[in-house]
Write a structure and sequence with these properties.
Strand content: under 5%
Helix content: over 70%
InterPro entries: SpoIIM, SpoIIM-like
Distance between the termini: 58 Å
Structural class: mainly alpha
Shape: elongated
Radius of gyration: 20 Å
Number of domains: 1
Protein name: Stage II sporulation protein M
Number of strands: 0
Number of helices: 9
Pfam family, one: SpoIIM
Keywords: Membrane, Transmembrane, Transmembrane helix
Largest sheet: none
Order of helices and strands: HHHHHHHHH
């Protein structure tokens, strides 16, 4: 069974290799644009974000972190809504371009976050992001890319079967598509557990060791 599952994944990757390359490049472009957007911030916007970080890091030092169960609900809801939207878009012929936009925006957010921390905190900011944000994204980002590829591929299949060829059964592909999205949703729920129960402790530890307090911003 395990071998069959591995072969299925390998076949899926090989069949949609061009889409994986495309979405990965698009995601990286989002990261690049997000990091460049940091330089376009006005002084007022920069000061507002720094003030928010001041309260955030002071709260970490004092042990004021969100309740883990509440954080889990918020993180899981956010990820599942994102994936659910991709799944719904994949069920329509015109959904593929919107899925492309979503994966680009995902990279944009990550690029902006990393870029802002590095720009304002230099190596301290990079260390904070690497240890407190990067680990869960090792699961989140690949899962999002897989779902985006599956959504685009299914949308293109709808286009071929319903508009161009006007034939062919789509139900088996729909089942495979939905099963893959469900599997990635489970991965995202697991990442949400890490994000809710492990990341806060890492953030407290890193913030304390690096001395990330308000004087560092001034």
């Amino acid at each position: 069974m395990r071998r069959t599952w591995n072969e299925t994944i390998q076949h899926h990757m090989e069949e949609h290799l061009s889409l994986y390359v495309f979405t990965t490049v698009l995601f990286i472009m989002g990261i690049v644009f997000g990091s460049l957007a940091v330089g376009a911030l006005t002084v007022e916007q920069r000061e507002g974000l720094l003030e928010y970080l001041m309260h955030f890091f002071n709260g970490l030092e004092q042990g004021a972190v969100a309740d883990a169960s509440t954080a889990l609900k918020h993180a899981a809801a956010h990820h599942l809504k994102y994936v659910g939207l991709m799944w719904i878009l994949g069920l329509s012929i015109i959904g593929a371009p919107l899925v492309v936009v979503l994966i680009f925006l995902k990279g944009l957010v990550i690029g902006f976050t990393v870029g802002f921390f590095v720009r304002e905190l230099s190596w301290n900011g990079l260390g904070f992001v690497f240890l407190s944000v990067f680990p869960q994204n090792l699961l989140i980002v690949p899962a999002m890319i897989i779902v985006s590829v599956a959504s685009i591929a299914f949308s293109l299949s709808l286009l071929r079967n319903r508009i161009i060829q006007r034939r062919g059964a789509i139900y088996p592909q729909f089942v495979s598509y939905s099963f893959l999205v469900l599997a990635m949703a489970c991965v995202l729920v697991f990442a949400s557990f890490f994000e809710a129960y492990v990341s806060p402790s890492l953030m407290q530890t890193v913030a304390g060791k690096l001395g990330m307090v308000w004087p560092l911003f001034s």
